[in-house]
């Protein structure tokens, strides 16, 4: 078998791509690589060059999605065990896993204590503003420890948290004012990107690592939803059981269980995504494929309703807020669908659905911008209008270029890499806008 450097490089790239299909374990990849090398050897023996033999052999291996499904069926018992069991292949790995779990639990307790202290010492409005500062530093610390960041790198991560703490606590917000709410909403978004900087180990310039953070965020949302659902059911059953004994435990739930449970769930969900991504990484893409067509139907129905109304000038303010939330949901679906897609596969029906989703969202965004500009022209600028307008402009730029690239990909005029690169390069814009809304909008409107 020809084992020159070029062939080994190609096999290495193929192996890395196969391992990206998390259903296939390292042992499975080794077995597949053995078959691949046998094929290359046989083909080289009949006169093919190493490069030609590699291409033919890979073609004979078949579609990786089909291979993944075959392994999933054959090893379903192993897949279920991976959900709950620590790796047991080697003693060092087991020790490392236990140590990591200990670190996560310690950080989760720390986050719970911080939230509990905030509940005791901070007024209600101040607690709402600072809640992200009480939890996200612990998640960021976990990622920094996990990625073995240097002390200098970890210190840099502390700067945005310090700036946010100063902004949220030194700005003279008017009680129950709009700018206070805006700052409280955008602070966790901006700080989530700081946690993302730790997640990628400080290598934010890497487009691949940025997309890894998108995948993590999608899976983290899934885990948080599952933990919230399970925790809610458990708390409900507990309260009901004690109530039947004429014992009131609601104060225990409110004062102790909820602060530690919510803060701990954020840390534990992050650890679960990291520890169990070999299997669970396949959940969010399935949800994306389910909700994409449903979201398209919702957007088309809304566009039809707007057309029937014949005017967007008098659109209700609450509806504008809901539409912005829907557009953010569309962005999440788009990002995660891109992050979970096989970059080498040709365009298929789902890619066309994604294009329809983007175009529909773009049409809704244009209507929302028209309505907002009309309200601003009639009633003037307010903090909420400026913030919503800025968000819609940020989304508009992304959707316009996403539609252009998506159309080019479906028509075969550009590769999927261009679609993915646009999204990863645009990610910092969202974090930058959230930081700008938190820092610049309140003083621009006298903290009203």
Describe this entry's structure for a reader:
The protein is an all-alpha fold and about 450 residues long. It folds into 3 domains: about 5-85; about 95-280, no CATH class; about 280-415. Helices cover about 85% and strands about 0% of the residues. The chain contains 17 helices and no strands. It has helices spanning about 5-20, 25-45, 50-60, 65-75, 75-85, 90-120, 125-145, 150-170, 180-200, 205-245, 250-280, 285-310, 315-340, 350-380, 385-410, 415-440, 440-445. Helix 2 packs across helix 3. The chain is globular, with a radius of gyration of 25 Å. The termini are far apart. It comes from Rhodococcus oxybenzonivorans. InterPro entries: Perm_prefix_1.
Would you spell out the secondary-structure blueprint of this structure?
Layout: H1 5-19, H2 26-45, H3 50-61, H4 64-74, H5 76-84, H6 91-121, H7 124-146, H8 151-170, H9 178-199, H10 207-244, H11 250-280, H12 283-309, H13 317-340, H14 349-379, H15 383-410, H16 416-439, H17 441-444
Protein name: DUF4153 domain-containing protein
Keywords: Membrane, Transmembrane, Transmembrane helix
Transmembrane segments: 101-119, 125-145, 154-174, 180-200, 220-244, 256-273, 294-313, 319-341, 353-374, 386-407, 427-445
Q: Uncertain regions: pLDDT < 50 for 5+ in a row? A: 75-93
How much of the sequence lies in strands comes to under 5%
Q: What series of H and E elements makes up the topology?
A: HHHHHHHHHHHHHHHHH
Number of helices: 17
Shape: globular
Measured as a percent range, the helix fraction is over 70%
How confident overall, as mean pLDDT? 83
- The gyration radius over C-alpha positions equals 25 Å
> What count of structural domains?
3
Query: What structural class should be given to the helix and strand makeup?
Result: mainly alpha
Largest sheet: none
Number-wise, the strands total 0
Straight-line distance between termini: 74 Å
